[in-house]
Amino acid sequence: LKPVKKGDRIVIAFWARAVRTPDGQPGRIGRVQLEATPVVRAIFEKPFELTPEWKMYQLSGVADMDYAPKALNAALHLDVQKQVLDLGPVFILDYGQAAQ
User: Fold this and answer.
1) Which of 60, 45, 71, 70 has the alpha carbon at shortest distance from 96?
2) Beta strand residue intervals within the chain, DSSP E
3) Phi and psi, residue 23, nearest 5°
4) Whole-model pTM?
5) CA-to-CA separations, 32 to 10, 11, 55, 83, 99, in angstroms, rounded
6) SS3 category, 79
7) Which pLDDT value is given to residue 100?
8) Which parts of the chain have pLDDT scores under 70?
9) Which among 49, 62, 43 is positioned nearest to 17, based on CA atoms?
10) What tens digit of pLDDT does each residue of 3-25 get?
11) Interior CA angle at 95 toward 87 and 92, to 5°?
């Protein structure tokens, strides 16, 4: 809801768990990414393996340029295996300028 400046450290945090997966494999989110809009472009991303227990997962990166309010969003791209996942709250946090 506020502008993001080039060099700001951004953290995406989310709660999740794997409820049902094939043959006891971990749950998978193929990639969680911070993306710019209206032309969708990933700024940073990371895949995650989920356990059956509720857990907070997180990834962080640095803004590559200035962004206007509402120009960034988080996206969770689910993997291709048949699975049931529970997803809780998702947060995008701006910690300001990254340490030099």
Assistant:
1) 60
2) 8-20, 27-36, 41-50, 55-62, 72-78, 84-97
3) 50, 35
4) 0.90
5) 13, 11, 15, 17, 24
6) coil
7) 57
8) 98-100
9) 49
10) 999 999 999 999 999 999 988 88
11) 20
